[in-house]
Design a protein that fits this description.
This protein has 7 helices and 3 strands. By secondary structure, it is mainly alpha-helical.
């Protein structure tokens, strides 16, 4: 009970004379002020550090390592190898780069839905591929896996 009397924000009365609402308002106001102070201090720290966080540093280091590894490959293979890094794990797991010729990277996709989704993102892929590749990549062409397989199947049947 002495906490109520020692609090400078409360009048010098006994707790029984204060309404519960008045106590809650004052306590809430104090809690809000502490929260606001913490929020201001946090935003000042973010402004001080800027965007150069540990993850940003790790990302730039990883990009340098990838570029160095890709530079060891023959130039015609760089866009094919860069596809895995640019596309990410999920997309590269469902797709397969087939060829690179005359600025066009051809990528095999499992179905029409994947082709539609990836066509919408083709501009982003081209920009990212050009960051990693020494060769100019103008566009990414997505071909259906079934077409490629049916052509290969037809070829083997013709040979028989």
């Amino acid at each position: 009970m002495s906490a109520f009397r020692d609090d400078p924000g409360l009048p010098k009365t006994s707790p029984s004379e204060l309404s519960c609402t008045a106590i809650l308002r004052r306590v809430s106001r104090k809690a809000y002020c502490h929260f606001a102070d913490a929020k201001i201090q946090f935003s000042r720290k973010v402004q001080t550090y800027g965007r150069n966080t540990g993850m940003e540093h790790t990302r730039s280091t990883l990009q340098k390592v990838i570029v160095q590894a890709l530079n060891r490959l023959p130039p015609e293979q760089v866009p094919l190898a860069a596809w895995e890094f640019v596309a990410g794990g999920t997309v590269s797991g469902k797709t397969r780069p087939l060829s690179f010729a005359e600025g066009v990277l051809t990528v095999e996709v499992p179905d029409i839905a994947w082709r539609t989704q990836l066509r919408d993102m083709a501009g982003q892929y081209v920009a990212s591929l050009n960051q990693y590749s020494g060769q100019k990549i103008e566009r990414v062409e997505f071909v259906l896996a079934t077409r490629r397989r049916s052509a290969a199947t037809a070829k083997t049947q013709d040979q028989k």
